Amino acid sequence: MTNKLIDAITGMQDEQVLTIAREIMESGADPMAILDDCRTAMEVVGQRFGAGEYFLPELILAGEMMRQVSELIKPRLTKDSGPKKNGKVVVGTVKGDIHDIGKDIVVFMLDIAGFDVTDLGVDVPAEKFVEAITVVKPQVVALSALLTLAFDSMKATVDAIKEAGLRDSVKIMVGGGAIDDSVRVFSGADAYGADAMAAVTLSKKWIGGS
Amino acid sequence: MPKTPAELLDERNKRINDAIALKTPDRVPIAMLQQVFPARYTGMVLEEAFTDPDKWLAANEKTIVDFEPDMFFSLGAGVIIPGRVLEALGSKQFLWPGHGVGSNTPHQYVEGEYMKAEEYDAFLDDPSDFLIRTYIPRSNSALEGLSMLPPLKSLAFGAAGLTPLLLAPPVAAAMAALNKAAPEAARWHAAYDGFYKKMEEIGFPALNVAVSIAPFDLISDLLRGMRGSMLDMYRCPEKLLAAQEKLLPFIIEMTIGKAHMSKNPRVVIPLHRGADGFMSIKQFEKFYWPGLKKLIFALVDAGLTPIPFFEGSYDQRLEYLREFPKGKVLCWFDRTDLFKAKEVIGDVLCIAGNLPISILQIGTKDQIKEYTKKLIDVVGKDGGYIMGSNAPLDTANPELVKVWMDHTKEYGVY
Ligand code: B12
Fold it and tell me: Chain A residues with CB inside 8 Å of B280's CB?
């Protein structure tokens, strides 16, 4: 019966989602199962985005629906053991660039795909990436930027990771508004991704995961 | 005998205008989106470009004289907003060099939901009132006091009702901030006007002076933010459309006014959130295209030449552009496949742009020559193409820019 919830989210039935979630909860369902359904729904939304059927409005609305449902059931969650994470990704907008909208979508998509994401924020200096790699030990590092000024910062970040002797421990991807494949070559990253789904696909390829 | 500046000015104008009108010019014209590049080229600290108009304009002049483009990009309108003006108003939307970003880092925009979804009704009821009493105070910390002004409708009872309110300290402080900003803004405006005149005198026309915006983007970039505007497509589509209807006449009137005043008929319209990937074709048809199309037609009807700059990619929506009036619009592209664009719209519209800024910044001379040649061979075939980059030159490498411009002038002769 909880498929109604999945259908409502994947069908962008914004006004019905909360009512359905409430009904399910009142019928005594396990809140964890509701969260799982949300995740399943988000995966479908992500796939449709990757396939060019859904676009930014749907991603954003789905995120909003998911947030509302999580807030509703949070007080009822007894255990906080989320599903097993697929692997670790450190994400940030590189130094000099203060834009977060693209990066936030990447973080969100990786999160719903089951990755354990550390978001370093915006205008992140190379040292901070290095430090995060040392502490978090991610398999993947995602560098985001909107502006061309970030080409140099991306290179400086990859260089700093190299200098710290950590380059072989991580795969690095670059992406965002003014970035293209030549920036991958220039910076010494492993891949360029054109959209947030590419960030997920690359992470899955590198780390594995469902 | 070398050509006089007046002859050069005519020659450059004709080259561009012929290309736009789909005639074959003497060679492929080249337009320069210099934007903040002159600072880098002349070794200025970028912060100075926002505080010292004379130095900044001298840097622009040197850049244009050295590179000799057929046209250069407008200086004002969101490119460089005088720093002291931003400071006096306490702008929260723009970070500028040395003020929120490094002193050599280009200005950046802080997007936000400056207008809430619940506020559409207030906006639709009386846009000017909403803008001056809610939007402006919210997005400029020094103008917060304006939120204490009475509803503008109360002016129906005469101006006297305002007087006591103007004395309230927050309102007075906002007025003082405006008074502080005004002379600085006026100083820059005068300097810009003088610059355009001077450049014409030495033979260099501006691509445009006026800049405009599509109604959806005005709402998405400035008022509601991306997140807000995208949610509105689902949650309050009618209001999103109604707000565009309301804004469109203002946009048209302001653009025509600005263009006529500048005596430059070309108007650049950077287009943001209607591109591939941002919204579906269905959403584009409903929420983006009608407003853009009306704007383009209104400008053409007023005798102007719109230059929509299709940021991102328009591969999936090129067909729509065929509806624009033939030979009257210049379509500037970012990442769209220009070879396809030439096929789809080349018989109706002049095409510009697409040379990747990444090549001009981190590429090689050979890569530039190769890409330039291909653009000229395929897109420039029989005219109808203006060479340009896919983004402002901002952080490009001057040496590579020179190779690009020289190669275009040499290889692009018809
Ligand atoms: C909307 C927009 C604006 C808006 C506001 C944007 C904002 N929040 O700051 C306004 C109108 C205010 C604006 C202003 C300016 N802009 Co502007 N803008 C855009 C535009 C059209 C879209 C940006 C956007 O909204 N993206 C939405 C998000 C969701 O997309 P995204 O960041 O690309 O992220 C997606 C993917 O790239 C990916 N992704 C992101 N990060 C990562 C990381 C990894 C690892 C991976 C795999 C994927 C990934 O996932 C996201 C979802 O799929 C872009 C062109 C474009 N199509 O990219 C130009 C663009 C960024 N702007 C540009 C410019 C020049 C400017 C200005 C400097 C103009 C001026 N002269 O004043 C100013 C100030 C700069 C600024 N933005 O701060 C240039 C930048 C070139 C440069 N020199 O750096 C661009 C590229 C346009 C162009 N071709 O000329 N801009």
Answer: 53-55
